[in-house]
Amino acid sequence: MRQRTHKKEVSTSAQTTAQVQRKHENESRWMKSCLFALFVILLLAPFTLIMSRELFQHLVYKHRIKVPFFVDLNQPVDFSLNHTINMYLTSEEGISLGVWHTVPESHWREAQGKDLAWYQSTLSDGNPVFIYLHGNTGTRAATHRVGVAKVLSALGYHVLVPDYRGFGDSSGEPTEVGLTTDALHVYNWAKERSGSSLVVFWGHSLGTGVSTNTAVKLVEQGIVLDGVILEGTFNMRNEKLPFHVFSWYYWKFPGWGYFFPEPWAENKVVFPTEENVKKMKSPLLFLHAEDDSVVLIHSAQQLYNIAVSAQNAERVKFVTFEGSLGYLHNGLYKDPRLPDIIK
Ligand SMILES: *[C@@H]1O[C@H](CO)[C@@H](O)[C@H](O)[C@H]1NC(C)=O
């Protein structure tokens, strides 16, 4: 009996030793993994720092996705825009912007084979001039952008559609300040040539942020835009998913700015639309699809309410499109009511 107990004790202690040894092994393996991970992180850190700026710009603007691919932006006629010319404007030193100018559709025959000088001279024909400031991703040739240009042109308006810096065949890199500078430049360029014609901004998605930024810049110079249309607008203050799930991460943890001060400072994304609409003095029209899943209609509603209290319900309008129509974030241009709404 005694002996047996002893044996058992021995075997128990042997087992314990083995367990302890295994535990040590596990720990050291774990430590090694940690050290290895740390080593990899340290090795990659400088690359991450360089890449993060690029990555961040990309997450917000997605300008490198040049959809549609394999197209010649110099040939708007390929997009059945046969009364459109492609041109380049210098927004600031070293920044060239690709821009399409579509004349009112009724002039399509007259426009055949015409040069830049002819197109520019038409800007003062008394028809309103729309500057379409597009959203992130892709170029001025994207289907929904061409769609809006066609609707406006059929209504008898001029349409200028720039690709901001870094987008399409425009040079430079996108930043919020840069995009605003580009829009301001296109406005001034148009204004110099359009005589007393109305000049209106149509911003879509990210472009609504650029539109209100630019409108406020103009207000500061004592200039009131003749109208601003905000399609699928967003409010940075409550947008959890402004553009992309990864950019959400960036807004959510501003501490990134500490680790990546350089890209953070240069590429700070504010788009203070809420503050902007309080300062704006232009007639405002909000367009939003109820089924917009990129930016929920709630944000537009909120901004509308703020804009109404800053101006009044006469100057600020809100038009919604039923979810059953399936327009989502980009499809409003298909709506047959749109021409009447814009007029
Ligand atoms: C040119 O565009 C106009 C307006 O979209 C269209 O009505 C017309 O048929 C087009 N002409 C040609 C030759 O493609």
TrEMBL record:
Q: Which GO terms describe its molecular function?
A: monoacylglycerol lipase activity; phosphatidylcholine lysophospholipase activity
Domain AB hydrolase-1 positions: 128-234
What Gene3D superfamilies does the annotation carry? Answer: alpha/beta hydrolase
Q: Which GO terms describe its cellular component?
A: endoplasmic reticulum membrane
Query: Which Gene Ontology biological process is one annotated for this entry?
Result: phosphatidylserine catabolic process
Coiled coil start-end: none
Q: Tell me the segments the record calls region Disordered.
A: 1-22
Which residues constitute the signal peptide according to the record? none
UniProt keywords, alphabetically: Membrane, Transmembrane, Transmembrane helix
**Parts of the chain that traverse the membrane:** 30-51
Polar residues bias: start-end ranges: 11-20
InterPro entries associated with the record: AB_hydrolase_1 (IPR000073), AB_hydrolase_fold (IPR029058)
* Record's protein name: Si:ch211-117n7.6
